[in-house]
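FORM 7B: Structural annotation worksheet

SECTION A. Query
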Amino acid sequence: MNWLATADRETFFADNAGRLVWMGVVILVIMPALSLAWELLFHQTLLGNYPMAIRWQVHRYLLPRASASTRTTSPAASPPR
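SECTION B. Predicted structure
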C-alpha cells in the first residue's frame, strides 16, 4: 500500500486523484453519516424505551404493596378504642 514508493512523485496526484477523492469522501462524509445514523437509531429509539419500561415495571411492583400498606395504616381500618 505504499503508493508513494512505487509511483512517480511528479504525477502522483494526477494519476490517483479519483481514488484519493473517494477515500476522502468515505472518511469525511460517509463514515460520519453512518455513525450519526447509528447513534440516532440507538439512542432515540432503542435506549429511550428502557427507562420508561423500568418505571412501569417498578410501578406495577410497588402498587399492590402501597395499597396494602394504606389499608393497614388508615384510620378507618384501625380498631375502635
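SECTION C. Observations
The CA atoms of residues 36 and 50 lie 21 Å apart. The chain has four helices and no strands.

SECTION D. Sign-off
Analyst initials: ____
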